[in-house]
Here is the input.
Amino acid sequence: MVDLAKVYDVSLTVMSNGLIVNSVGYMAGKRSCNKGLGYIIITIFLSSGTLVPWSYRWLNRQLVYSLFVVLLGVTNMLLPVYGSVWAVYLFLTLIGVSMGVIASTASMWLIDLYPESVTAAILQVQVFCYGLGTILAPIIAAPFVYGTKEVTEDGEPLTAELRQQKLMVPFAINGAFQAIRMWFTG
Here is the structure.
């Protein structure tokens, strides 16, 4: 967050507000799977209430899952280069919606695929993998972030452009993991 704040030339408080919009997007995406694709679309553009509870009657679950995995990967990969903090907020909301839709869709998909006797264990594996990702992500990102430092190890001043270049690597790795997820599950 500190590096993104320096890239976009805003305070850490302003950049951290992105976590709030991301969480709101997640809640909307999670709820939308029970309410329908129309709800997702309206939530993305208008951030408003519940509508059509019928999306999975007419839409292929795998297609919806695939669409939102691609959306998550692309928006996440490009996060350091959006240009303004308002664009970051918008795309963090889209990331949150995508994460919520993916979580709900994957859970429903797993419940449909496996018999009742093993469904709980399969769902726990899904949550375990999420937890594993939250542990590994900071380890993978650590060499590419500078935090509050003002100079590199070589004594070179840290500019917003240099931070942006370094941040592209972990965000690209994240996008690549989304592509791998797509290949295995989509």
